[in-house]
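Task 17 of the worksheet. Students: predict the tertiary structure of the chain below and write it out as structure tokens. Keep your answer in the requested format; marks are given for formatting as well as content.
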Amino acid sequence: MATQMSKSQLIEKISTSTELAKREQYWIDYYRWGRLFNLAPVSTSTLGVKYTDIAKANLRAAAKRKKPHMWTDAERAALAKRSRERVWTPEMRANLSAALKGKKRSAAIRAHFSEIRRGKPASATSRKVLLDFAKSKRSAETKKRMSAAAKLREAQKKANGFIPRKHPPDEIARMCVAQRERHAKSRQELFRGQLCLPI
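Model answer:
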């Protein structure tokens, strides 16, 4: 380490990098960081470093010179293979679900994924999941939760000043027929294995 008077002195010898970081932090605290040539007050972090305008400009220029990595076909195939063969444990699924809970995708992201998936048939795994869901019957507990969620949405709409539109009976009947036709068409495409997953 060097002091402001540009004097250097060997304080101690360290054999491992882990121990080096600890001892460096000890001597930074001992001599007080402001009196040393160390840029940061913490040996293992750059937090607290104040860059000059020239340094910031140099960092920006260096970042612009970096070329993005271009994935080769072999690399893409290897990544896709690892992704397909990855086994998700119940713990991993629970952690991912907890991390994503409450987060909403922006309209731009939803449009992007919709464009990517448009025209692509569902995978065999997705078709099996959808088939199982289509054949299954909702339990009383599931119906109760769905009903509670619907009531909560309606209460939130009313609290926000939303005025629901009252449809005449003939329009309600027409909407029900159209909905049944859409469901029937979706089931036919699903059983043919050609259903495309929307966002």
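Marker's comment: Residues 194-199 have pLDDT under 50 and may be disordered. The first helix runs from residue 17 to 31.
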